[in-house]
Design brief:
By secondary structure, the chain is mainly alpha-helical. The protein has helices at 2-13, 15-28, 35-56, 58-68, and strands spanning 70-71, 76-77. The radius of gyration is 18 Å and the shape is rod-shaped.
Length: 79
C-alpha cells in the first residue's frame, strides 16, 4: 500500500512531465494522436518508473520493514 501511495504521489507531482513523455513515446511509436495509446504509454511508464524507484530504495525499505515486523518468539519488535 505504501508503494502504491508513494508512486501515485510522485506521479501527481510529475504529471505534466509524464503526459509529455507519454505523448512523445506515442509519436515515436507512430500512434499519432491516439489518446488510448497515450494513456497506455503513460501507465507503462508509471509502472516501470515505480519499480525502478522501489528497487533503488530496496535496502531502506527492508530496514524499515524489519523495524515494523513483530517478532513473536522474542515478544518485541526487531531492532
Amino acid at each position: 500500500m505504501i508503494f502504491n501511495f508513494t508512486c501515485a504521489a510522485v506521479a501527481i507531482v510529475f504529471a505534466a512531465q509524464l503526459a509529455t513523455l507519454a505523448k512523445w513515446l506515442s509519436t515515436m511509436l507512430r500512434a499519432g494522436d491516439d489518446i488510448a495509446r497515450q494513456i497506455a504509454n503513460a501507465q507503462i511508464i508509471f509502472n516501470i518508473l515505480g519499480v525502478v524507484l522501489a528497487i533503488k530504495f530496496l535496502p531502506l525499505i527492508a530496514r524499515g520493514l524489519e523495524k515494523l515486523i513483530f517478532d513473536k518468539q522474542k515478544g518485541d519488535r526487531q531492532t
